[in-house]
Amino acid sequence: MLGSFTLTADGYTVPLGVDSRRLVAYLAIHPRPQDRVALAADLWPGVAPAAAARVLTEAVAAVGVPGLFLADEDEAGGHLALAAHVEVDLADALGLVRGLPEIPVTDTPDIALLGADILPGWTATWIAVERERFRQLRLHALEERSLRLTAAGRYAAAVAMAQTAVRAAPSRESARRTLIEAHLAEGNIAAAVAAYDDYEDLLRSSVGPASNGLEALFPPSPVWPVMRVRRPMPRSAVQLPGLRAARGAYGGRRLVAGGANPGSAR
Q1: Is 227 left (phi over 0), alpha (psi -120 to 50) or beta?
Q2: CA distance 8 to 264
Q3: How many domains does the chain have?
Q4: pTM score
Q5: Which domain holds residue 201?
Q6: Which residues of 239-264 are buried (b: 16+ CB within 10 A; e: fewer)?
Q7: CA dist list (Å): 77 to 26, 38, 48, 177
Q8: I need a surface site. Which of 104, 138, 170, 198 has the fewest CB within 10 A?
Q9: Which helix (H) or strand (E) holds 251?
Q10: What's the burial of 78, exposed, middle or buried (CB within 10 Å: 0-12/13-18/19+)?
């Protein structure tokens, strides 16, 4: 369910038609037994109830994996669900989200399941709702875990956790904030500024100039007075350490060796 749809049985991938794939996906996302009439209406909206019920029955029969479904005796008006022994990666991911706050920061859990959306590209409303719900849950879990790791001084792990959240939601400000805070706590100012600039570039390209509030993470100081209003700067305006700008005879600018007396430059 995460990243793409795949059904395997006994180590082999089971090919499914469109209707059967839609049915199995729905039951994997909704683990409780589903009323057949309501299930058919959700899966095939706009289809007459009798026709939708017939398509549902055909979709169940076409799966051809014994024991995959748990059905009531009365198949015409009963309930349908995946059998209890069926393993669903989404269920595992939700279990990880719930358990992540209880895992000690000294442990390194496998968070690979939290890096993908539910069936990206599928456009049905019932998928979109659950996709966004899972997305919010996993992003909150990743951000909270990163903050805990930062507080515990595990900066590399905190950065990796925050980067997972950023990849999942590049425009999410809280994910960017968590990443920048991890870099700053580690003392990696350059990486923090790079993360800030990357977010600024994303916003500028998508919504135009906008204030994101993240500059407050960089308090001005005599050592590193960063995070003032940033404007595009031509490369010719950048000065290198130890060099200063001097104006030539024709008003052009050139970089010359630094010195206390401007007239001493050769």
Answers
A1: left
A2: 78
A3: 2
A4: 0.77
A5: 89-217
A6: eeeeeeeeeeeeeeeeeeeeeeeeee
A7: 18, 10, 16, 51
A8: 104
A9: none
A10: middle
Look at residue 206 in the predicted model and tell me its pLDDT: 80
Assess whether 30 and 75 both reside in one domain.
yes
Tens digit of each residue's pLDDT (9 = 90 or more) over 102-120: 999 999 999 999 999 999 9
Answer for the pair 119, 5: CB distance below 8 angstroms, yes or no.
yes
Using the 3D structure, point to which of 32, 57, 82 is the last residue of a domain. 82
CA distance 177 to 162: 9
Domain boundary among 202, 217, 232: 217
Check: CB of residue 166 under 8 Å from CB of residue 176: yes
Tokens of 214: 């993240």
Question: Domain with 164 in it: what CATH number?
Answer: 1.25.40
pLDDT in tens, 187-228: 999 999 999 999 999 988 887 666 667 888 886 654 454 444
With tokens 């916003």, the residue in question is 203
CATH number at residue 56: 1.10.10
Is residue 21 a contact partner of residue 14, using CB atoms and an 8 Å limit? no
Q: Are residues 120 and 175 in the same domain?
A: yes
